[in-house]
Design goal:
single chain; alpha+beta; three-stranded antiparallel sheet; four-stranded mixed sheet; 4 helices
Length: 156
């Protein structure tokens, strides 16, 4: 269920958003990151992901998000849950001004390891550039958002 901008602004200002993030690794162990187009976290490297919609099961959300973000649908059973995380931002998709609400996410993060030779076609809806990062580079780079680095610390 998609919301009007006015209603979504009220939701963002009033309650946490529930989302799934996708820590995608290729067969070499590199992590797929995209440079964010939108607030919050605009301009930094972040894992793909998105909100769970009202009346959408987690399985359906996972399939939709992988299809929409990665260009290929995966089943949640193909991934390993890393945990539940909280993200707090001082801005929102509505801007940085004083009348813009801050954003609070409760995020379910999943690790998805691709088979050797498996390719993705990430979309440019939320990110304008993608690249595969060696794990150690992603863990130490200041260009990678702290919330993404928290996921990487929990990989095994």
């Amino acid at each position: 269920m998609w919301l009007s901008d006015d209603l979504f602004r009220t939701v963002v200002a009033s309650t946490p958003l529930i989302a799934m993030d996708l820590v995608v690794q290729n067969s070499q162990g590199e992590i797929l990151l995209g440079q964010r187009l939108n607030r919050p976290a605009q301009g930094v490297w972040f894992v793909p992901g998105g909100r769970i919609l009202k009346n959408e099961t987690m399985d359906v959300a996972f399939s939709r998000l992988t299809r929409d973000e990665l260009g290929k649908a995966f089943q949640r059973s193909e991934a390993r849950m890393l945990g539940a995380y909280e993200h707090f931002y001082t801005n929102s998709v509505f801007g940085d001004s004083d009348n813009s609400p801050d954003t609070h996410y409760v995020v379910l993060a999943y690790q998805l390891v691709l088979a050797e030779g498996e390719e993705l076609q990430p979309t440019n809806t939320q990110h304008d550039a993608y690249r595969w990062w060696p794990l150690t580079d992603a863990q130490t780079s200041k260009e990678v958002h702290d919330n993404t680095r928290a996921y990487l610390d929990d990989l095994r």
